[in-house]
Amino acid sequence: MPDQxxxxxxxxxxxxxxxxxxxxxxxxxxxxxxxxxxxxxMLGPSGSGKxxxxxxxxxxxxxxxxxVELGGRDVTRLAPFERDVNTxxxxxxxxxxxxxxxxxxxxxRVKRVxxxxxxxxxxxALKSVRLEGFGGRRPAQLSxxxxxxxxxxxxxxxxxxxxxxxxxxxxxxLKLREEMQVELKAIQREVGIxxxxxxxxxxxxxxxxDRVAVFNEGRIEQVGTPAExxxxxxxxxxxxxxxxxxxxxxxxxxxxxxxxxxxSVRPEKLRVxxxxxxxxxxxxxxxxxxxxxxxEVVYAGPATxxxxxxxxxxxxxxxxxxxxxxxxxxxxxxxxxxxLVWHRRHExxxxxx
Length: 353
Ligand code: ADP
Ligand code: MG
Prior knowledge:
The structure is a single chain. This protein has about 350 residues and is α+β, with helices and mostly antiparallel strands. The chain folds into two domains: about 10-235, Rossmann fold (3-Layer(aba) Sandwich); about 245-350, CATH 2.40.50.100. It is about 25% helix and about 30% strand. The strands form four sheets. The chain has a six-stranded mixed beta sheet with strand order 6-7-8-3-9-10, sandwiched between helices. A five-stranded antiparallel beta sheet has the order 13-17-14-15-16. Strands 2-1-4-5 form a four-stranded antiparallel beta sheet, covered by helices on one side. Helix 2 packs across helix 3, helix 2 (about 100-110) runs parallel beside helix 4 (about 145-155) and helix 3 packs across helix 4. It is elongated and about 80 Å long. The two termini are about 15 Å apart. Magnesium ion binds near residues 50, 51 and 198.
């Protein structure tokens, strides 16, 4: 893996981490450095080993090989309660018979923290998740988003160095999830604790995180900022999992780009122009283009997706904003001959396995 260029203190360091369950190789060698105060996402499809990595950091699972360091200390052999981390689970795991306040205080009570300090810290934690005044309610009297924030307060009250979140927004509907993405980010900024969260949702990872690690089959394919992951995917897997891959490869790469290899251009970087020249069809020396036929048109309100079968082979998807056109205009383009144009800096080579 390339040098991750971190100069600040490390909250989490994973070295050669592996985990097998019988002959299932859940995690097959993970190295990762996470800085203090980062909002870090582990993104990948179901079964790629994200939860298992999180559980090894928390101490619920012991590695088959490798090491976990927290704040520079090797904790690989320590029990969960000896580690400066807390976990927020997807199902929240709130106690239904306790009030919100009691739920948040619970961890402190177990640690025998004095009553008035417990109360104060719980109120502070509830305030940080914007649930002041909800302490007297039962979990059943809250909305899904509010229950999620109680679960967050219950972890924050312990003031861990690292907060681990496993698909924290997975149980919420889309609208609420989008609101909570913004909220969670704001809360993290305020409390300043390192957040390490797991998600299979690429948009969620790109929206909230300072950096993202993309998981595939128990390994990390790429680590980077959301822009790096999206604009410069290192592998075909990342290009396909994060966004639309839009590959140009084989003979098509030779014809269209004049070079060998596999390349990708994101759909919103492509401009659709008429094949017979006309307006917008003149290329600058910095541009590449490919001729093809529109095989599919998907009108989606603010934008339209054009599926274009290239004359040179393969197909590309182009996303165009509907600035001055209507659905009628764009739908009529199915079957049209077009030329796709893009700036060379938006095409990038990707590794193929
Ligand atoms: P993710 O969180 O990315 O969906 P997991 O870490 O939960 O993936 O699982 C990775 C792989 O390990 C999967 O194939 C899963 O079935 C397997 N696995 C996870 N936990 C166990 C377990 N306790 N026993 C056996 N197999 C497991
Ligand atoms: Mg999981």
